[in-house]
Amino acid sequence: MEEAAGQAEEAGLASLLDRSQTQRYTGGFNPESWEQEFDKIPMFMKKSPAEIDPEENPDLACLQSIIFDEDQSPEEQANTYKNEGNEYFKEKNYKKAVISYTEGLKKKCSDQDLNAVLYTNRAAAQFYLGNYRSALSDVNAARKLKPNHLKAIIRGALCHLELKNFPEAMAWCEEGLRIDSKEKKLVETRAKADRLKRAEQRDARKAKLKEKKEQSQKEVLLTAIKERNIKLFLEASKEEDEISDVLAEMSLNGLSSDSTTGTKVYLDDNGNLNWPVLFLYPEYGQTDFISAFHEDSRFIDHIQVMFAELPPWDSERKYHPSNLELYFEDEAREEMYQLNTENTLLQVLQHQRYFVKSGTPAFLVLVKHSPFSKNYFFGKKVHRLK
Question: At residue 110, does pLDDT exceed 60?
Fold first, then answer.
């Protein structure tokens, strides 16, 4: 009898082994989508449960029903979310911590101390995410529930410190120290806020003194320009009292105030004006720049230095000092004025038809009797200065 039973069991095992070798297992992952299927297993999920629709994942719904049992009281559910958030916080996963604390607050439990902790903890997570204003909003909410909540006060002081609200940071520290006069974090934060506030005030005083000094220098400079009867070209929208603003924009190319050099006209120690001057060579599209052209210097003196050697772009070798003529253009009248190279810069700037544009006098340099010059002057009236 026993022998017959043993034979039947062996036959059954043999039959099972035969079927396992001929039948394919159908409960495994799909080779094409195994990663997505693996990610649906709660233990191995990469997303926060709060980001997943439980209806699409019954396993998750089952697990959540155990952890966050709807039969639990709001206080119990809020506390569970708080603990979950704390775990995320320990892992420095602050975004998920914020989500968990927020879910806890949504339970609107009647335990105000627990709600204050949820707000304070969420503030801490927001703080480490760099969301200082959101963190500050949370600590204010926590203190409405629990005014003497020391952790909330500490976090609020730190938020104000990061936002550079130094007086407010100190005020929060003072309030916290009235609760616990030996709280190290508050003592340190108050000292740091006080130090930074003093530095900020010192920098503000320095900036104000610098601005006042610069404004005084501008006024002196403007007076010197007016005394010499030099005219500054202003846009139609500018008034006479805005001339000082124009002086502040004087730059290298005479066109904008964002030049890397920021070269401007200035008064030297002897009370003489030194101007940035631009020379234009329209025939070749070239320019030269003199950063400090003394008002009593002659044009010929600069020309001889500039063309002591012929420039590489002068392919015809014709830009010799004796071959050059200098002009400025009266755009309003479409007329040209030829300079006497023996003139000083001041003599030219004092001409009744010369206007300094953007703080940088500019002059055209052309070759005498050249085809380009004849074509350039075609249709224009040319005056010669004495």
Answer: yes
